[in-house]
Design brief:
Length: 431
C-alpha cells in the first residue's frame, strides 16, 4: 500500500480533484503561453517592427529553460513537503509572464525576454515537478495509481488543446495582452490550489534518513541502469521527435488535401481532441500490467497511427487518422508516468520526472525545427519517418526488455489489488 496515500477514500478523491484543478490551471498556462506571446508580439499594439521574429524568440525563451529543470527538481527531492516550492514556482511563473507581457513594446525587448526566460525556468515544475507528487495523493493500490495517472494525462491534454484555444479566443474577443495576462492569472490560481493539497513527506519511498537527494549525474546513471526507465526514456524521446514535427506536417498535409483555409490547424485540433478522449478513456479504464510493457505496445500503436496519417488519401480520412494518432498517444503517456512512478530511485523522484519532461520538450522542439527544414520532402515522407521512429523505438525497447528482463531488479512489491494481479502477477504499486 502506498505509504503516503490518504486512508479516507473521500478525502483522497477530494485531494485528487484539487490536484487535477491545480494541474489543469498551470498546464493550460504553460501550454498556451507561447501562443499568447506570439499573438502579442505580432499585434499592432506591441509596435514591434519584426513581431513574428520577436514572438518566435520569446517562445524559444519560454521553452529552452526546461532543460534546466533537474536543478530545481533536486530541491523538490530534498523538500519534506514540496507544496510551498511548487506553489512558489507557479506564482513566479505567472508574475514573470505578467511582466514579460506588460514590458513587451514598452521596454527594450531583451528586458521583456529576460522576464519570459524566468517564467520558462519555472516551467518544468508545472509539468514533471507536479507529476512527481501525484503518487502521494492518488491513493493505495495499482488501480488508483493508474487512474490518477490517467487524470494527470487529461490535464496535459487540456493544457495542450484547450489552453491555446482559449488564449486564441480571448485574444480575438479582447486583446492578446488580456489573453496573456489571463494565463498568468491561471498560474497564480494554480499556486493557491496547490497549497491546499495534502501535506506529504517525500512523494516516493524515502531515501535513508538524512540522505541527500542524488546528484544529477547519479540520477542519469540510475535511469540508464534501470531497464524500465531506460526503455521509457528511449521511447519518449523518439516519439517526442516525431510528435514535434506533427504540427508542421499537419499544415502542409492539410493544404495538400483541402483548399479550405485552416485545414492544417484542424488536423492539429483533431490530434488534440483525440489525445484528450484517449486520456479520459485511460481514467475510466486504467492501464493493466507492467507499464514498461504497456508503453512498448502503445509506442507500436503510435507508429501504426502515423502510418495511417501518411496513407490517408482524403481530408476526412486524414482527420480521422490524426484523431487516432492523438488517441493512442494518451495511454502511452500514462504508461510513461506509471513507469517513472514505479521505478524512480529514492532521492531522485522529482529529478527523473523533470529531466524526462525537459528532454521531451527539447526533442519536440528539435522535431519541429527538423520538419520545417525538411518540409520540401512532403508531408507523407515526413510521416513515414515518424512511423519509422516510433516503430524503431518499440522494436528497440522490446529487444532491450527481452535481453535484460531477467536482470531487472523489481523496485516495488507486487500488489494484491493490481488490476491483473491474478492473471499476470506482474503489476506493481508504490510500496
Amino acid at each position: 500500500m502506498n505509504a503516503y496515500a490518504r486512508t479516507d477514500p473521500t478525502a483522497g478523491r477530494a485531494a485528487l480533484a484539487r490536484y487535477v484543478a491545480a494541474a489543469t490551471l498551470v498546464r493550460a498556462a504553460d501550454g498556451a503561453a507561447a501562443v499568447g506571446l506570439v499573438l502579442l508580439a505580432v499585434s499592432p499594439g506591441a509596435h514591434l517592427a519584426h513581431g513574428a521574429r520577436t514572438g518566435g524568440l520569446l517562445a524559444a525563451g519560454l521553452t529552452a529553460p526546461h532543460l534546466l529543470g533537474p536543478l530545481a527538481a533536486r530541491r523538490l527531492d530534498r523538500a519534506g513537503d514540496g507544496r510551498g516550492l511548487l506553489a512558489g514556482a507557479f506564482a513566479l511563473y505567472g508574475a514573470a509572464l505578467d511582466a514579460g507581457a506588460l514590458l513587451l513594446g514598452r521596454a527594450p525587448t531583451p528586458v521583456a525576454g529576460a522576464a519570459v526566460v524566468v517564467a520558462g525556468a519555472c516551467g518544468p515544475l508545472l509539468t514533471g515537478g507536479l507529476s512527481s507528487r501525484l503518487a502521494a495523493i492518488a491513493g493505495p493500490g495499482a488501480a488508483a495509481q493508474r487512474r490518477a495517472e490517467g487524470w494527470d494525462a487529461v490535464t496535459y491534454g487540456l493544457g495542450g488543446t484547450a489552453g491555446p484555444a482559449l488564449v486564441a479566443g480571448l485574444a480575438a474577443i479582447a486583446s492578446p495582452l488580456s489573453a496573456t495576462l489571463a494565463l498568468a492569472a491561471a498560474a497564480g490560481a494554480g499556486a493557491l490550489v496547490t497549497l491546499t493539497l495534502p501535506a506529504v513527506g517525500r512523494a516516493a519511498p524515502a531515501a535513508p534518513a538524512g540522505a541527500e537527494p542524488l546528484p544529477l549525474g547519479d540520477t542519469l546513471r540510475a535511469v540508464a541502469a534501470s531497464g524500465p526507465l531506460r526503455r521509457v526514456t528511449l521511447a519518449t524521446l523518439l516519439t517526442a521527435l516525431s510528435g514535434g514535427a506533427l504540427s508542421v506536417v499537419a499544415v502542409v498535409l492539410g493544404a495538400a488535401l483541402s483548399p479550405r483555409a485552416g485545414a492544417g490547424a484542424t488536423l492539429v485540433a483533431a490530434f488534440g481532441l483525440g489525445n484528450l478522449a484517449g486520456s479520459l478513456l485511460v481514467t475510466a479504464r486504467p492501464l493493466r500490467g507492467e507499464p514498461d510493457a504497456a508503453g512498448i505496445r502503445w509506442v507500436a500503436a503510435i507508429g501504426a497511427a502515423y502510418a495511417l496519417c501518411a496513407l490517408a488519401p482524403t481530408y476526412p480520412l486524414a482527420l480521422a487518422a490524426f484523431a487516432v494518432a492523438g488517441g493512442v498517444n494518451a495511454p502511452f503517456f500514462a504508461a510513461t508516468l506509471a513507469a517513472r512512478s514505479e521505478h524512480a530511485p529514492p532521492g531522485a523522484r522529482a529529478q527523473v520526472f523533470v529531466a524526462l519532461a525537459g528532454a521531451k520538450v527539447a526533442m519536440a522542439a528539435a522535431g519541429t525545427a527538423l520538419a520545417g527544414a525538411a518540409a520540401g520532402l512532403g508531408p507523407r515522407a515526413l510521416l513515414a519517418a515518424g512511423t519509422a521512429l516510433a516503430l524503431g523505438a518499440a522494436a528497440g525497447a522490446g529487444l532491450d526488455r527481452r535481453l535484460t528482463a531477467a536482470g531487472d531488479e523489481p523496485t516495488r512489491a507486487p500488489s494484491r489489488d493490481a488490476p491483473d494481479a491474478g492473471a499476470a502477477g506482474h503489476s506493481r504499486t508504490i510500496a
